[in-house]
Design a protein that fits this description.
Blueprint (H helix, E strand, L loop, with lengths): L4 H6 L9 E2 L10 H12 L10 H21 L6 E4 L2 H13 L7 E5 L8 H10 L2 E5 L10 H5 L6 E7 L11 H10 L3 E5 L11 H4 L3 E4 L10 E5 L1 H5 L24 H15 L9 H28 L4 E3 L9 E6 L4 H10 L2 E2 L2 E2 L4 H6 L7 E5 L6 H17 L7
Parallel strand pairs: 1-11, 3-4, 3-5, 5-6, 6-7
Antiparallel strand pairs: 2-8, 7-8, 9-10, 10-13, 12-13
């Protein structure tokens, strides 16, 4: 399978700055077709959705096309694709709505592996509803969160389990389909944070068993907003807070205010860019996306192996990303040195590998890294061999030039 990395990189204007980007888990750089789609949407008449005037029809088309593209990406029904400001906002909205139907004695399960956006909304909603929160741990030695970790927290009173499909801190990919079976056997709902996962692996919300699946297009070459996918039949049973004049139809029932039409144009374009990365011209968009994710996976796996081999040759580097099944995102700590200093040193080399806990605060603490976290190195579909070599050379020089201080 041919993966045209050079063509992809040439189509991302930001890469012309020369920065080697390892900050993809926090947000990817934007391809030219996405930028042009956003500008194109704003260059034509645009108004509230309708069917009479050009601006109305244009807005409606942008929404419909974005839902269809995202449904192809996620293996979802377009009628169940909800568009919002961010994955965090959508999760808060769903948590508040579901909690209205909970009662004292009910339970929800969250995990220590998750980004706080899939922990705090549920904890806060549970507290207000008088509901018990149970926490599923992960193994800090291996980074794994297994179905057994979830099973241990389930009970007949479990109403919802919130779990990540891939850790944005250490890359761990839990067995979501297996977890989904357990959750549904317990009569509960499964809420899956797919924000980090969707950039690296093909998604099929039905096969995963996700009752709700959230993601963010800016993690996979698109603009900044959030997406939630669920079965339309499930959404029909929920009554979120909304304005009286606003549509009560699903999925519009969950979309507050006017949608960012220009960003939806960019999201549709981002999905099409992804679909073109597998070199397959035949088949529908869903099939082309399958081929693209296979190609992306091979590219990122090869670079991850190169990166891990190089890190293993450096003294004083600990890699906390160890799960057998994980994304190409590595969390590093440096013996006796602050990763914040390494971040700054690499920035001086025009290499962007940030340091922190990245809102996965529970995971960072469970790993014994407190609120400091570590240096996160995230590979993306546009990362090159040269980028990896620059990072490794920069880390090697930093280790040489910065003596370890063990009381740090």
């Amino acid at each position: 399978m041919t993966y045209d990395l050079a063509a992809l990189r040439a189509d991302i204007p930001a890469l012309a700055s020369g920065t080697a980007h390892f900050d993809g888990p926090g947000g990817t750089q934007t391809p030219r077709p996405v930028i042009e789609a956003i500008a194109g949407a704003l260059s034509r008449p645009l108004s509230n959705r309708g069917s009479l005037l050009p601006g109305e029809r244009h807005a409606d088309t942008l929404v419909v096309e974005a839902r269809r593209a995202l449904a192809d990406l996620l293996g979802a029904d377009p009628a169940g694709v909800v568009l919002g400001r961010s994955a965090t906002q959508l999760t808060y909205d769903v948590a508040r709505t579901l909690a209205a139907g909970w009662s004292e004695g009910d339970e929800v399960v969250v995990t220590r592996l998750d980004h706080d956006a899939n922990i705090r909304p549920w904890m806060q909603a549970a507290e207000r509803a008088g509901v018990t929160v149970r926490r599923a741990d992960f193994d800090p030695a291996t980074g794994e969160l297994t179905a057994d970790h979830i099973r241990a927290q389930l009970s007949p009173r479990t109403r919802l389990v919130a779990v990540t499909a891939a850790s944005n801190l250490i890359g761990t990919m839990p067995p979501i389909a297996e977890i989904g079976e357990l959750v549904h056997q317990a009569g509960a709902l499964l809420y899956v944070d797919g924000v980090h996962y969707t950039a690296h692996a093909p998604v099929d919300v039905r096969a995963l068993g996700a009752d709700f699946f959230v993601c963010s297009p800016y993690k996979f070459l698109g603009p900044h907003h959030g997406v939630l996918a669920a079965a339309p039949e499930l959404l029909e049973t929920l009554r979120p807070d909304k304005l009286l004049p606003s549509s009560d139809a699903v999925p519009e029932r969950f979309e507050l205010g006017t949608l960012p039409y220009e960003f939806l144009a960019g999201t549709r374009a981002a999905v099409d860019v992804l679909a073109g990365l597998g070199g397959r011209a035949d088949g529908d968009r869903r099939a082309r996306l399958g081929a693209a994710y296979e190609a992306i996976g091979e590219h990122e796996a090869r670079l991850r192996a190169r990166l891990e081999e190089g890190l293993a040759a450096l003294d004083g580097v600990t890699v906390h990303s160890r799960a057998p099944r994980r994304t190409p995102t590595l969390l590093l700590t440096l013996d006796g040195r602050r990763t914040e200093d390494a971040y700054r040193f690499l920035a001086g080399r025009n290499v962007h590998a940030p340091s922190g806990h990245f809102y996965a605060l529970e995971a960072s603490r469970h790993l014994g890294l407190g609120d400091t976290g570590g240096l996160r190195v995230g590979l993306a579909c546009y990362t090159s061999d040269e980028d990896v070599d620059r990072l490794l050379d920069g880390l090697a020089d930093h280790l040489k030039e910065t003596p370890a201080v063990h009381d740090r």
